[in-house]
Amino acid sequence: AATAGAPRGAFILFEGVDRSGKSTQAAKLVEALNAQGTRAELWRFPDRKGTVTGKAIDEYLSATAAAVSSSGTGGTEGGKSGAGLSDQAIHMMFSANRWEKSRALLEALQQGVTLVVDRYAYSGVAYTAAKRVPGCGVAWCKAPDTGLPAPDVTLWMALPPGAAAARGGFGGERYEEAGFQEQVRGVFAEVRDSSFVDVDASGSVEEVHQRASC
Ligand code: NYM
Ligand code: MG
Description:
The protein is α/β, with parallel strands linked by helices and 214 residues long.
């Protein structure tokens, strides 16, 4: 039940390409909010652990190229059936992953908890549309997320082209490739809406934190 009289928490979203500093900044923002007495929690999507879809998504993202091609011929890679999912199927999985958490997300907000969320539906659209699969344009990509709770603000981690890749540390997951990341950035630019606020994501962790928390 909602805490009587508690003001609704804020839904603060971080979006950006891989290696733009979202996870670091989201964690720091939660820490700062809690330190100033605002109840805040860090959530992230994909939620790989607390969901039915999380395991398939994790298998898909971590699959090697070899595992992907063998699953394409019907192999299941030791039961890792997420590895060879089609572009359409994995898109639905990412969306379903958000829907799995949507009720709990609304309940937390209603109870006055501020949620700082690391990626959400904009990532869903950007990464799939960036693949340029025929029939899977932006409108198609947005459809399954229609009706999800919307963020109050989306902090866009703004970096010049190539800067995120130059930071290095791509972990070898699917999508972590500089050329593809630039396509992803392009779709983000196309789908940004009035919830977006640009945060200059260059410079030190502390500098970006100051910008993200004002
Ligand atoms: N990703 C994330 C998608 O492709 N679709 C989605 O809906 C979401 C939320 O998952 N490279 C991709 C973007 C990332 C990857 O996320 C894993 P993270 O935040 O890098 O762990
Ligand atoms: Mg990543």
